[in-house]
Every structure is written in C-alpha cells, then in structure tokens.
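Here is an idea for our session: we take a single protein and study its fold together. To get us started, please write out a protein record for me. Start from the sequence, derive the backbone structure tokens from it, and show both lines together. Go ahead whenever you are ready, and we will take it from there:
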Amino acid sequence: MLARFGCTNLLQLGRHISHRRASTSSSKEALQFIAHGLSAVVEADRILPYTDPDDTRVQPLLKKAKENFELALEVENSNTDAMLLLSRLHMYYHIPGACPASGAALLEAAADAGNSVAQYELACRLRAEGKLIGLGDGDGMDEKAFKYLELAACKKHPGALFLMGATYLGGKHTKRDVKAAAWCFRNAAEQGHTAAATVYGALMARGLQVPIEESEEDMADHHPDMATTDLHDMTDNGDVHCTADMEEAARYYFEIAAESGDGLALEWLNRMPAAKESTENTDQQ
C-alpha cells in the first residue's frame, strides 16, 4: 500500500527551504533542482488519489522528482533538504529503483547533519518501529528516538516541541517538569500547532504561566548533549505566579485552536465564563 506524505507537508517544507539563504553558486543550483523536484511531487500527489501508482501520468513525475533531488545532492552533497526529500521518495513512493533501506539511511544522514525536519521524522519512525517490539513502556520511545526528538525540539520544530511537551508533562522518559512542558507547548502553539495551543491554554487555565518575555535564545547553538539542560534552563524562572489576565490568555489559545477545528478547545471555551463577566469580576475584586 502506498504511504504518501501529502502536498501539505511538501508545501510547508518548500516554504521552509525557500527561506534559506543560498550562500554559494552550488547552493543556489541545488535549491533550483529541489524546487523542480518538489513541483513534480506536488503534481504527482494531486493525481495519485484518483489513479494507480503505476499510472503513466504519475511515474514520469516521480522520476523527474527523483532525478532532481539526486542532481541537488550531486552539486551540493551536504544538502540535507535534498537528502530528506529523496529519502521520502524511496520510503513512501512507488518509484523505479526504490530502496527503503537507502531512504532510511538518507533520513538518518540528514538528521545527523542537523536537519530538524529529518530529526523529527526519524524520531517518529523509530517510535513507530519501537511500538511494534514493545519499546518504551508501550509508546515506542527508546533512547535513540528521544535523542532525535530532543534535537528537533531544540531547533523549535513544532511537532517535536509538542511531543517533548507531552514527555515532560507525563514524566515518562525524563523528569516531570510542567514548566518545561508549558514552554514547549507555547512555542509549538505560536508556530500554528493546534493541539499544542489547546494544551497550553489548559495549563494556563489551571494556573500555570510561562512569561512571554522569557528568553528566546536559540537552543540550536548549544551542544546536543546539553539539550535537556537547555530546556530546563530556559524555563527556570523561579516560582509560578498567577496573574489576573491568565484566563484571557488561556481563552486566546483556546480560540486559536477552536478556529482550527479542535473540539477539545471548543469544550474548554464553553466551560469558561464569558469574557465580559470575567472582566467585571476582576474589577469588583
């Protein structure tokens, strides 16, 4: 069965790549090849739901994508975006000469080279494989998966931040730290992660606040082995103090999530007092 990674993820990755600066002529050439390859895969993804993977309209597009990603690596062999995209073709698409093992190796190479998207995808892949053999108390999280997830979170990948937040909140594979969890959820929410917005809103509604003015020092500058310490350092602000506007802040995140279709966020909003009533009660106090 064909497991594809969809136009949405591709377009998001395309925007991510487009913001990178091409410092050399080879980098610029590689970006051009990647853009051509992405365009071909997006068109293939548009057709695939309505046809067979071997359809004559699909195969030329996938072949074009594969060739362009390979050319990108030829002109710039350290291009992790090309590694990541080529790995996806090998692992998830029906292409001539597809080799899942090669795809997995490319994914790990991109992750080891510091690509946060690859680190997150590799962590998820390792967890999925771990679940099949019962690793990590049933959730598939082993030391290797946790390492890549943590590295991606340090680079503020929204999906990785959400999973790290859940890990800190549950305390299953690291020391339970609600403030570190809240920091992860808030940063993921600010990047548009719906579930993270709901969870962070819930934490605030229950009385936990992580100040907005908190340091935003880039965690990627730190040594990978210090990733966990960095997360704790960046969320260590002493005692937690509830403020009068925390309810409205929680409402703000719930509304963001509810607008994206999150039913749980809508339930939270329905349970909260009306904004006007809340303001009046605060004034009376």
